[in-house]
Amino acid sequence: MGSYHFILLITIACICNASSASIFAKDVGKMSVLPPAHYDYEACMDNIFDNAQLTFNAKLGLDPALTWKNATELAEQVHMLIDKGVDSFVQVCNARQVYAYQLGATYPFCVNRFYLLNRDATPFADAVTYIHTYKHLEFICSTGFDVYQSNLACIVNAEHTGGTVYQACFYKFQQIVQNNPYRFCE
């Protein structure tokens, strides 16, 4: 009798699991027909995002007024800190880690140009520059950390030797995408 109940319990659990999986699959199917932008930024909470930015700025000694609204200035300040050397680079990475920790699961929703474009009438250039800055930090402070920090002097030299070539390339890309967003993935 005991093994019969055990088999019955297993069968019911499997049926319930399969039923839940098919319901989940139907919901996923519905989500895939909705425009992706609908889900890209709705989960970002403005107050958490703003506090994460304030903490990032404070950890680096940056003006608290630097936000996505003046992203070029923020990016330049962060870049100058990175260029100072490995210790300063590590400090920027630590601040970025705290920023990401504060945003938690909302990070991908907040570090998203659609979120910024829909907040406070953010200009396109600021949204793209802000997201580029944090995505760049995301890479160089994680996967690219070892290579970046061990080659920092060379990277800084390459950026400055070419004058404004490095920045001109980014701004050219930004203009192309602003004029025709469909070229973003080319």
Structure description:
The protein has 186 residues and is mainly α. The chain has two domains: 2-33; 40-183, no CATH class. It is 75% helix and 0% strand. The chain is built from eleven helices and no strands. The protein is globular and about 40 Å long. The N and C termini lie far apart (66 Å). Mean pLDDT is 79; it is low at 5-9 and 16-37.
Q: SSE layout and pairings?
A:
Blueprint: H1 2-33, H2 37-40, H3 46-60, H4 71-83, H5 86-103, H6 107-110, H7 113-117, H8 124-140, H9 145-150, H10 152-161, H11 165-179
Helix pairs in contact: 3-5, 4-5, 4-8
Features:
11 helices; globular; mainly alpha
Portion in strands: under 5%
Mean pLDDT: 79
Q: Distance N terminus to C terminus?
A: 66 Å
Count of folded domains: 2
The helix tally amounts to 11
Q: Give me the strand/helix succession.
A: HHHHHHHHHHH
Described by strand count, sense and barrel closure, the largest sheet is:
none
Keywords: Signal
Organism: Strongylus vulgaris
Protein name: SCP domain-containing protein
Describe what is shown at a glance.
This protein has 186 residues and is an all-alpha fold. It contains eleven helices and no strands.
